[in-house]
Request: fold
Amino acid sequence: AVVSTQSTGEYGNEGFAPLYHEFESFYHRNVYHRGSMLTAAPLAGTPGATIDIIEREWGEHLSSFKLTDRKKNFLNVGSYNYLGFAENDGYCSKETIKEISTSGAGVASPRKELGTMQIHQDLENLVCEFVRKPAALVFGMGFGTNSLNIPALMDQGCLLISDELNHSSLILGARLCGAKIAVFKHNDVADLERVIRKNIVMGQERTRRPWRKILIVVEGLYSMEGTMCDLPAIVALKKKYKAYLYVDEAHSIGAMGETGRGVSEHFNVDTRDIDILMGTFSKSFGASGGYISGDKKTIDHLRRESHAHSYAAPMSPPVARQIIASMTSIMHTDDGKRRLRQLAANTRYFRTELRKRGYIIYGDSHSPVIPMILFTLANICAFAKECLNRGLASVIVAFPATTMLGARARFCISASHTREHLDRVLDILEELDPIIGLKLSKNRKTSAFLDFWKHLIYKQ
Reply:
């Protein structure tokens, strides 16, 4: 007998199975959509310490909106502008404008054909010097740097071991490559070793032959958790079991380490012990795109086989100039060193104050990404609305980016913030605590309602 089930229909395709995931479609329409006026705000300007947001007028039931001519300035703690290079004046911007008049806006050919320019080679040489690797390759899109290069490194008969909280670009690359994927608990080195040992013993599915190669994929700094990978322990495991190591430094390069060289510098790990170092330019360097660095043989292989190098549009010359200018500033100028010190000082101050006042925050003490746990969708919607009413632009994160009860606000600290900016954010949080109940730390007495949510989340 055929059992009929109620499912979401698609207009014009009655009787067909839905193309989309039913639960996520239900969640988006009935839950997420109701808070859409608090998300995806259209911006008008650079994402510095403050940012201009265009006001919107919403239709009935939030079904549509139209942009107005009105703009509002907000204090900004939601952008990945860690070193403050996302600006429209100063040395980097002037160099970028000059490059537009010299090289134009772009090249209508992929890198493998006619799209490689001298500025791309100059940038790759500078990246090699900065990350201390023999060779590097740059790409116009950070997401594609992961998703289109992992398939050139791994295929069937290989084992790819991934942290459970890796970025979606890494997950997509893992799925596209055709290798067997094994997942270990977030930042749990003991579980990583368990997964490695189990898969080495079992071998490939069906044939039980040894794996052709094993690649461990982790992030340097996890942007939803604010945690850093335990790099020294992972490197020790990689050596013990003769596996390769791929580290995504999208959020850590430029923001971590005494000279901004990422988690390898922070943990004093020799970059020769990391087979593939990947990073993006859209955070600390105020630009876009990404890079992959490694030994010369690996990078030459990617020049031949990478879909991102063979088919995608190359990085725009003005974007490359912005990266060269900001990276040179970090390496050789007092202003760059000042930005690194300012980011570290701002991060320490803001994290210390949040923890001291009773907020639950995640992450490493050196991480400029600071998630503050609010648990429920109702809490983060109320938080975002009240922040906007007080002139604060922040980021709220909920399912599916987190678990159902892992909703959070996320603060991104920048070198462009002053102590007055951070104190203003803390004052706004103090104003909102009696309204929403933000201080959920075990060290502070809370209402029975909040105690219920704490008990539930800790139990899980």
Remarks:
- The chain has a mean pLDDT of 89.
